[in-house]
Amino acid sequence: MDKPIEPLADRMRPKRIEDIVGQDHLLSPDSVLSRALRSGRIFSVIFWGPPGSGKTTLAKLIARYTQNPFESFSAVTSGLKELRQVISGAKRNYNLTKKPTILFVDEIHRFNKAQQDAFLPHVESGLIVLVGATTQNPSFEIIPPLLSRARVMVLRPLEGKDLRKILHRAIKDKESGLGSMKLDVKPEAIEHIINLSSGDARVALNNLEIAAHYVREGPEGKKVIDLKSVEEALSKKALPYDKDGEEHYNLISAFHKSLRGSDVQASLYYLYRMLMAGEDPLFICRRMIRFASEDVGLADPEAIQIAISAFDAWQKVGPPEAELALAEAAVYLASAPKSNALYLAEKAVKAEIEESGAQPVPLHIRNAPTALMKDQGYGKGYLYPHNYPGGWVKQRYMPEKIRERIFYKPTDRGFEKEIRKRMMEKIEKKPEGS
Fold first, then answer.
1. Based on the domain organization, do 193 and 263 belong to the same domain?
2. Strand runs (DSSP E) across 140-235, as ranges?
3. Are residues 130 and 81 in the same domain?
4. Is residue 328, in this structure, part of any structural domain at all?
5. Statement to judge: residues 390 and 411 lie in one domain
């Protein structure tokens, strides 16, 4: 019986460190992992990253570079029984080779505590070198004793440029890829495949392979893969979008204005229009962080934390799971009380500095580190607020020329109502001696 043909994603799996793309922070020539692989001495490690970022590839490269016995199983389909069999085999291998067995456990987070405990004595004894792969945060999913005996290395989601390189490599490779098929893959087709992959190299290569077998040969046996043929092969229509053109600016503008207008439904719609069309999610996150300061401000001080958390979630988890974190942030920002008082204050204070220049700091609040400065009156008459009831005392801080200028004017919406109340309590009476 003929051996089944491996999927393109497996055939194109990198066989050298240099062939891996998108993980330069882990695989630079001087990195710990690169040096360990080249020396043939590896340590227990847990690779944490989104699907298709290269976790399994790295595990297989470890086996290739070290020449150690290698066993692999998935936590989805295997349990303690299979583990015992692996351990028995590792003992036999060690007796023959005096080398530890590299045990690759895919989706290690799916093992429960008792199952994870079973690894410990064999990792400690050096019988096995554990290489785990997980899409979940190891801090929450891996037991502390096991975590303390392994290094955690974080793989980043693959970017468009990384996937583009991987796809072009597969198109040209005649031995493992699709080079013998004489493919003419149009740039717009490549971009659509990338947009559908959500940073997953396996998905991108599988979709390329499906499209390649779907398209019929044309003149001279050539296969032309354009956007239409990819859409038909994958049953996924490309949304009109140009990251550098008008639609890019139209959608981000519509998203921002929907948030500002407190329209939750429209905010979600434009968010997913951009995500599904392949917009950089971190660009969207950056815009939400700006929005949180500009249009929500101190009406809801939590808004900026929610926006920053969405940014962090995308960097740490990646697609598709982290898309919901962006949706959560969008809904929160859209429904939050709005104030642009902070934004207006920023404009006002910048304009004042431009107009009046560098005004001298009042003497009583200047720093006085030397005797000469003290003789010049630096710091003289300064009142230390903590020495007064409520930690506040009437005192002038603004330069004399602009002492009456007001930059920040809080609204009566959300938390700014409380800020306004606090400020009013302080300015009902002017500072003495001002």
1. no
2. 151-154, 183-185, 223-225
3. yes
4. yes
5. yes
Query: Could you tell me if 144 and 57 lie in one domain?
Result: yes
Q: 154 has which bridge partners?
A: 48
Q: Specify the pairing of strand 70-74 against strand 101-106.
A: parallel
Residue 398 sits in a domain of what CATH number?
1.10.3710
pTM of the model: 0.55
Q: What is the pLDDT of residues 113-161, one digit of tens each?
A: 888 888 888 888 889 889 999 888 888 788 888 888 889 999 988 888 8
Q: Domains in the chain: how many in total?
A: 4
DSSP state of 239: P
Residues 227 and 328 in one domain: no
Q: What is the pLDDT of residues 13-34, one digit of tens each?
A: 998 888 898 888 888 888 888 8
* Contact present, 261 and 303 (Cβ < 8 Å): no
CATH of the domain at 312: 1.20.272.10
How far apart CA 243 and CA 248 sit, in angstroms, is 5
Boundary (domain end) residue, out of 125, 154, 183: 154
Contact 58, 20 (CB under 8 A): yes
Same domain, 67 and 126: yes
Residue where one domain finishes, among candidates 304, 335, 366? 335
- Collapsing DSSP states into helix, strand and coil, what is residue 224? strand
In 3D space, the residue among 335, 383, 388, 389 whose CA is nearest the CA of residue 362 turns out to be 383
Structural domain contains residue 282: yes
In the block, which residue shows the tokens 């109502």?
A: 417
Q: Which tokens is 307 given?
A: 């926006």
Range of the domain at 422: 353-427
> pLDDT-based confidence at 330, cuts 50/70/90?
very high
Assess contact for 260 and 338: CB atoms under 8 A.
Answer: yes
Q: Which of 302, 330, 335 is nearest to 314 (CA)?
A: 330
Q: Establish if 17 belongs to a structural domain.
A: no
- Name 133's bridge partners: 47, 106
For residues 215 and 224, is the Cβ–Cβ distance under 8 A?
A: yes
Task: Return d(Cα 434, Cα 429) in angstroms, integer.
Answer: 11
**How confident is the model over 170-186, as a mean pLDDT?**
88
Q: Which residue, 207, 282, 206, 204, is CA-closest to 243?
A: 282
Q: Which residues of 111-134 are buried (b: 16+ CB within 10 A; e: fewer)?
A: beeebbebbeebbeeebbbbbbbb
pLDDT category at 433 given cuts 50, 70, 90 is very low
